[in-house]
């Protein structure tokens, strides 16, 4: 919503496109909060369009033939995309008379794909950022038009990084649109040798490499992504460990092998290389529903 609102303050929005997806999709993908707009945001987009009498279009794929027809009639100068779930086909991209732009919350060509924030934490990146690029028929592979870099503090919540990326991306997008007006834009081709990818990950898949990661890295990963992602853990009785939050870590606490989880007064101790991570327990009164 933030990029849409920022663009609408200066430019005429002639239509808004909302993806239509089957209910089961929201259960299959991980971190839908980061990969695309959740249901609440989709409702917000609908309300925004209705209040401003802006046509609201629906797409069922990135090559939706009905969407091609609608956009061809509207003849937009620019298509702007933020958190759209599919790669747009050449027919849709071709309806834009000037440019088709995407806001991506990573430093492209690093972390191309649907869930860049997850992989930023997984790969222990110390810097991150936002990119505005031209769209083509490959995921996040078009020429870079603007990019902003920032430090990623250790343990910084990904939900806050997501919000910051939206604000920074909106500012970058408006800046690119201004330069397009004066034709002062200078596209930069992405270096394919530096490209990495950010695919979907199953919620049930363990991601932490306990044999290699030091305790501080494990804490950063778990703390940053919780509660959107929780590492699947087992206690010494091979029962699933359900933790509510990540308290912190203790260097030097190596009483057990990496990956072992023991009960503690605060909930759980997760032992790692070089220390342990403290996890809070799920309240007994809380009813948990698995995705």
List the helices and strands and how they pair.
Elements: H1 2-8, E1 16-19, H2 25-28, H3 32-35, H4 39-51, E2 56-59, H5 65-74, E3 78-82, H6 90-93, E4 99-104, H7 116-122, E5 127-134, E6 144-151, H8 158-182, H9 215-225, E7 233-234, E8 240-241, E9 243-251, E10 261-264, E11 267-272, E12 275-281
Helix pairs in contact: 1-8
Description:
The structure is a single chain. With 291 residues, this protein is an alpha+beta fold. The chain has two domains: 2-194, Formyl transferase, N-terminal domain (Rossmann fold, 3-Layer(aba) Sandwich), CATH 3.40.50.170; 215-281, no CATH class. The chain has helices at residues 2-8, 25-28, 32-35, 39-51, 65-74, 90-93, 116-122, 158-182, 215-225; strands spanning 16-19, 56-59, 78-82, 99-104, 127-134, 144-151, 233-234, 240-241, 243-251, 261-264, 267-272, 275-281. The strands form four sheets. A four-stranded mixed beta sheet has the order 3-4-5-6, covered by helices on one side. A hairpin with a 2-residue loop joins strand 11 (267-272) and strand 12 (275-281). Helix 1 (2-8) runs parallel beside helix 8 (158-182). It is elongated. Mean pLDDT is 90; it is low at 24-33, 35-39 and 286-291.
CATH class of the largest domain reads: Alpha Beta
Tell how many strands the DSSP assignment holds.
12
- Percent in strands: 15-25%
Helix/strand class: alpha+beta
Distance between the termini: 25 Å
The name CATH uses for the topology of the largest domain is Rossmann fold
| Proper CATH architecture of the largest domain | 3-Layer(aba) Sandwich
């Amino acid at each position: 919503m933030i990029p849409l609102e920022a663009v609408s303050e200066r430019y005429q929005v002639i239509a808004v496109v909302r993806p239509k997806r089957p209910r089961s999709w929201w259960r299959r993908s991980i971190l839908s909060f980061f990969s695309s707009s959740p249901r609440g945001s989709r409702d917000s987009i609908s309300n925004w369009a209705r209040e401003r009498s802006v046509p609201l279009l629906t797409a069922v794929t990135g090559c939706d033939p009905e969407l091609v027809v609608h956009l061809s009639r509207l003849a937009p100068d620019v298509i702007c995309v933020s958190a759209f779930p599919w790669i747009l086909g050449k027919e849709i991209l071709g309806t834009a008379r000037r440019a088709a732009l995407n806001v991506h919350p990573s430093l492209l060509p690093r972390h191309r794909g649907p869930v860049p924030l997850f992989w930023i934490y997984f790969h222990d990146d110390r810097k991150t950022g936002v990119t505005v690029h031209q769209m083509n028929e490959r995921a996040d592979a078009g020429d870079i038009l603007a990019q902003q870099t920032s430090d990623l503090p250790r343990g910084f919540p990904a939900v806050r990084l997501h919000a910051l990326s939206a604000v920074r991306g909106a500012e970058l997008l408006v800046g690119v649109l201004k330069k397009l007006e004066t034709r002062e834009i200078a596209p930069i081709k992405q270096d394919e040798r530096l490209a990495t990818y950010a695919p979907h990950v199953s919620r049930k898949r363990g991601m932490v490499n306990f044999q290699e990661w030091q305790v501080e890295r494990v804490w950063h990963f778990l703390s940053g992504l919780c509660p959107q992602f929780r590492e699947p853990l087992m206690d010494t009785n091979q029962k699933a460990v359900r933790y509510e939050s990540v308290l912190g870590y203790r260097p030097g606490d190596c009483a057990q092998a990496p990956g072992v989880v023991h009960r503690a007064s605060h909930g759980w101790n997760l032992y790692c290389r070089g220390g342990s991570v403290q996890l809070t327990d799920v309240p007994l009164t809380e009813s948990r529903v698995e995705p």
